Amino acid sequence: MTADVRTDDGCRLWADQAGTGPPLVLCHGGPGMWDYLGPVARLVDDHARVIRWDQRGCGRSQRRGPYTVDRFVADLDAVRAHLAGPRTALLGHSWGAHLALRYALDHPERVNHLIYVSGTGIDPDRGWHPRYERNLRRRLGAHLPRWEALGVRAGTPAEERERAVLQWSADFAVPDTALRHADDMATPWLGVNAECNRALGAEAKRELSESDVTARCRALEVPVLIVDGTEDIRPRWGVDSLHRALPNAERVSLVGAGHLPWVEDPQGFRRAVTRFLTTH
Prior knowledge:
This protein has 12 helices and 8 strands. It is an alpha/beta fold. It has a single domain (2-126, 192-279), classed as 3-Layer(aba) Sandwich (Rossmann fold), CATH 3.40.50. Keywords: Hydrolase.
């Protein structure tokens, strides 16, 4: 069932909810993308009432700023208040994992579980991005020249989609199915908000450098599940310091899965998430 959520500054956010049970709000990655977590919802909607949403400026939500971390935290709070109730579980993927963590740090009394999927951690000094770039180029393989050519200039929507599909294919561990999985992510194609991506990416990096996120994580009592795929091209050691800082965290690494572990190990992902939600 779809719904519109209005934020305190009047921005319209697209949302959807399905399933029965305690609320679980999903936060998609990007930033600047749209919700692609329908498969996650279908894996767990017999254990939770799953709420998905397109972040501000993305997908089916209204195309307007500002694109700041504080603003996105406030938008998530609006989704929570409108659809989930006083307290909710949160699941964030990639950039969405950072958003969900930041929300839990700001509003721990409104979060009962936090599931941090394929995030990149809280350590600004270890420099995971150069390793990611090398791994991306290596995994693109024969598709690398075309991906590079498509990035030289602003393209048509079809060319933007083609480049995204090629890039996202590197997020899957099995070459034979990677392009198909990436094409599924890009269908329907709702366009990536590049302005949103740049603004939030830069602010999140600056925030990790200038604020003591580690100390705030040490004080977080909310139970946290960290889920990784062992074949993610973003180095998983980037999350080690986050795991060490959280006082009530466990970590599950799904062997042979990439950046979207629910795609390549759906049953392992379902087991980890549903066990966490029902035993903590």
